[in-house]
């Protein structure tokens, strides 16, 4: 099983601004409406694992549900799937290693891990194998941090760097084990 983070962050390491704002993600002009490789990335994953807050954020976006792959929402507070999402998400909770073992037994091998607290929890359990982080040239000064304190250092190997629109930097890292 491979657990992959694919996310954007500000120069100061935030994935959402104060009050959860995401408007800063569009600060670089994108005249060709590039997805910066996201569609290709999605072709290589089997399912998404996201936290409750990320689900709530995505569910509030205008337009149709953006994912065609199975989505698993980790939540200890959500007891049922909200109306209109029964065919879009499945709820999970429990220790992360048990959750991953269950998903692996169901044939999900490449997982996209999304959401601040979820990513932090996966990192704290040393369950992230690859990170693709696009840095956007803005300082937010607060918000939801991508990283938090860890039990011990985790070392990654730099795989590649891409410059996007002469404004953003997309770095790919693999966990060094």
Summary?
By secondary structure, this protein is α/β, with parallel strands linked by helices.
What labels describe this entry?
alpha/beta; Dihydrofolate Reductase, subunit A; two-stranded antiparallel sheet; 4 helices
Question: Any overview of this molecule?
Answer:
Strands 5-4-3-6-1-7-10-9 form an eight-stranded mixed beta sheet. The chain has one domain (2-175): 3-Layer(aba) Sandwich (Dihydrofolate Reductase, subunit A), CATH 3.40.430. It has helices at 38-43, 52-59, 96-105, 116-124, and strands at 2-10, 14-16, 47-51, 71-74, 89-92, 110-114, 130-136, 144-145, 156-164, 168-175. It has four helices and ten strands. The longest helix is centred in the middle third of the chain and has 10 residues, at 96-105. The mean pLDDT is 95.
Q: Report the oligomer.
A: single chain
The name of the CATH topology is Dihydrofolate Reductase, subunit A
Biggest beta sheet summary: 8 strands, mixed
Please give the share of residues in helix: 10-25%
Write the layout of secondary structure elements.
Blueprint: E1 2-10, E2 14-16, H1 38-43, E3 47-51, H2 52-59, E4 71-74, E5 89-92, H3 96-105, E6 110-114, H4 116-124, E7 130-136, E8 144-145, E9 156-164, E10 168-175
Parallel strand pairs: 1-6, 1-7, 3-4, 3-6, 4-5
Antiparallel strand pairs: 2-8, 7-10, 9-10
